[in-house]
């Protein structure tokens, strides 16, 4: 089984301090072990026709769907969601098992000198 | 600098054979080296209020923005986009440098026996 992803794309209300929200998210995922990894980004291109006004993507990865369920039911998540729902103008959520079609290349092997040092 | 992501969320037209589109995408990313990795998923929850009718997420990762630009200008991409644009009911694209806040844990080290075998 592959990983399970929680994808949120969002447009924040005009008067929102986005940095505060992002800091809150950072704290949230640090506190919940079930979240395997988390990354976010802000669209650079800003072509309204393509982004439909959405500005930020939030992407969390879980080892399996059960970990996502744990995350959803965590008290800290409920608390954060309460705040989050007040700052968004629009939002789309997609939750899905990820199919990794083209995996990233493996990291390069360590230099030979390092391998010897471990022997 | 972190990676650059190309995120597409989409709702296909009702009569579209989605598998054919996904096969086309698989072929596309296999042919273009600039695409570092590619994964996709179909939302499982199907809560219209949350997904807004979007069903699929398509996520490509590039080492840097320049690689994404190479991808965009690749003749195969132009060809695929022409087809893709005919099968979608609605779409959002977000292109962004990814901020990796919580990296995935490193893979476990190889068993000691394997390390010895390399000496």
From TrEMBL, chains A, B:
Q: Which InterPro entries match?
A: Dabb, Dimeric_a/b-barrel, HS1/DABB1-like
Biased composition (Pro residues) is annotated at: 102-112
Q: Where is the Stress-response A/B barrel domain?
A: 4-96
Region annotation (Disordered) ranges: 100-119
Q: Which SUPFAM superfamilies match?
A: Dimeric alpha+beta barrel
Q: How does it assemble?
A: Homodimer.
- The entry's protein name is Stress-response A/B barrel domain-containing protein
Organism of provenance: Rosa chinensis (China rose)
């Amino acid at each position: 089984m592959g990983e399970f992803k929680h994808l949120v794309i969002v447009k924040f209300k005009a008067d929102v301090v986005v940095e505060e929200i992002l800091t809150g998210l950072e704290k949230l995922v640090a506190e919940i072990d079930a979240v395997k990894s988390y990354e976010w980004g802000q669209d650079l291109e800003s072509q309204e026709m393509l982004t439909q006004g959405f500005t930020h993507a939030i992407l969390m990865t879980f080892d399996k769907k059960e970990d996502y369920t744990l995350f959803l039911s965590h008290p800290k998540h409920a608390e954060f969601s309460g705040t989050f729902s007040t700052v968004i103008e629009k939002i789309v959520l997609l939750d899905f098992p990820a199919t990794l079609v083209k995996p990233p290349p493996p990291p390069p092997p360590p230099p030979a000198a390092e391998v010897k040092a471990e022997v």
